[in-house]
Design a protein that fits this description.
The chain is of the alpha+beta class and about 140 residues long. The chain has helices at about 100-105, 115-120, 130-135, and strands spanning about 20-30, 30-40, 45, 60, 65-75, 80-90. It has a single domain, classed as Thrombin, subunit H (Beta Barrel). The chain is built from three helices and six strands.
Length: about 140
């Protein structure tokens, strides 16, 4: 008879559903760039364009959100590694000392503009309507 699904070597053994992604991430120590190719509640698969860090990653940061995961390496294959999460922290909040490098780099990821500088920025579209028209609502036709 055929081999059962439980004994199949290709069987997905994850306890939670895998979500395919293409998120930008960084692995610390060393701030090594990576792409998070799939993600679960318990771990992730990381792909590196350059050399894989020699030291096991202790922290993986999802760069768009600032969510840091304390990670341990479970496997390595080619330019990919699989990590299991043992904890997480939000880098927008105060963080412990071992996350200081990741938090400082993440906070500097883009320039912060004050309101006047933002308004003067060429990326802001200016409205041709006056403020009084916006506040009073649409005018009835004459």
């Amino acid at each position: 008879m055929g081999q059962s699904a439980e004994l199949s070597p290709d069987r997905d053994r994850r306890a939670t559903e895998r979500i395919p992604t293409s998120l930008r991430g960084k692995v610390f120590p060393g701030a090594v760039d990576c792409v998070i190719t799939d993600f679960t509640k318990q771990g992730a698969r990381l792909r590196f364009d350059g050399a894989i860090p020699d030291e096991d990653p202790r922290v993986m940061v999802v760069w768009s959100s600032g969510q840091a995961f304390i990670a341990e390496t479970r496997w390595r294959y080619g330019r990919e590694i699989g990590v299991r999460f043992t904890g997480s922290r939000d880098l927008r909040r105060p963080a412990p000392e071992f996350l200081a490098e990741a938090q400082a780099l993440w906070r500097k990821r883009r320039p912060r503009l004050r309101r006047k500088a933002l308004i003067a920025s060429p990326v802001i579209l200016r409205s041709t309507r006056r403020r009084s028209q916006r506040l009073s609502g649409p005018q009835p036709p004459l």
